[in-house]
Amino acid sequence: MKKLKQKNNLNNREAILNDSIPKTLFKLSWPIMVGNTMQVLYNLADTFWVGKLGADSVAAISVGFPLVFLLISIGGGMTIAGTTLVAQYTGSDNKKMADHVAGQIFSLVIFLSLIFGAAGFIFDRTILGWIGAPANIMDEAVAYLDIIFAGVAFMFIFFVFTALLRGVGDTKTPMKMMVFSTLFNIILDPFLILGWGFFPQMGVRGAAIATVLARALAGLYGVYLLFKGEKGIKLYAKNLIPDFKVQKRIIKLGTPSAAEQSIIALGMTFLMGIVSEFGTLAVAAYGIGNRILSVVMMPMRGLSMATTTMVGQTMGADDPDRAEKIAWTAVGLTFSLMMSMILVTQFFPAQIISVFNDNPKVVAIGVDFLKIVGLSFGFLGVRIVIGGSFRGAGNTVAAMVLAVVALWGFRVPLARLLSNYFQLGTTGIWWGMFISNFLSAIIGGIWFKKGSWKEKKAI
Fold first, then answer.
1. What is the per-residue pLDDT across 247-281, written as a single tens digit (0 to 9) for each?
2. pTM for the whole thing?
3. Are residues 220 and 291 in the same domain?
4. CA-to-CA distance for 179 and 34, rounded, in angstroms?
5. Domain check: are 196 and 72 in the same one?
6. 206, 352: one domain
7. What are the tens digits of pLDDT across the range 113-156?
8. Are residues 272 and 238 in the same domain?
């Protein structure tokens, strides 16, 4: 069995370096898409069961989301460096260094999780006060966040596990673990939140405990698999001892990705502020539009992450021409797939919005969102995949700059300008989103085409 698994890992590398590019992209990306879908179900399950307790409880777990998202940004950003480095060392057939980097990523991220978890646990009430959390939900919000912060190490462990396996080209194992974790959380939620059976009703605390337990089981089993070494990467105790030279490289690669996600979170909050100026119906329509957009982005992100792995391994194997071919193939596939969704957004927008809210005004605003923003789905996909290509080559700064320019250089200013100065209202915001997606895709394509990313690898 062990030899068979090792052979599968070698086959992954061989396919990435030599096999059909579209076939391999699909093979790597579809499990990531399934995993992303599970993440959406994870959040929906918590909201659904907590919703049985009332609006205040839902607000209590929602108000602290920016803090949780910030943690996810930092942890996920640092582990992106693991995917890049492990992919490049795997491509260069240097398993010893791939294993060493895996150990360094693991020890660094666990250290960071303990620091951030402790800080969040101590200061969450203060930060919620800064955010402006209503007094009537403050205690519940703090109770929820205290448990989440106490268990944040398990969340980071799962990030590491997922990133390292993606680096060697194994996307199916993280998917299976994500499916297990999600189903476990969904099953556990009503027992802990509502007090089914012999369990006491713990409310929002129950939601947090279910989340931490589900992450812990998946994360600890992932650590077991890494120490066992049958998935293409192996953790050795000696590699967990800090090697500051390697960790410095990890931080250099990971910090731009962590900053990128954090800045995007801030920008999206600012954009919500612009939308809210046009009333609660506009906010409702925007919220529905974003939910739909999050579903549309699943295949984009799946292809982007698969591209990161393939470009990373190919660059490690000193084949930048194939790396470039992989990137442009992924761009073409993503653009074609996303543009095909235009038919849905143009011909059935009202039916889609009505599934979530049948208020005529909300539907009307939401229809405008889908008809305008929907036209740019292909360009958004191009920008995201090009960002993944830059990360695979080790140029995480370029990926960060591209994302920040798209949001802060175009989207936020244009939304403000078109909606207020030109008095287009919410329609101006939607056109700002369209233009930002279009321009950032063009800039990303030109930047990538210049080819300067070929000159320097991460390893």
1. 999 999 999 988 888 788 777 778 878 888 888 88
2. 0.86
3. no
4. 8
5. yes
6. no
7. 999 899 989 998 988 888 677 788 889 889 999 999 999 999 89
8. no
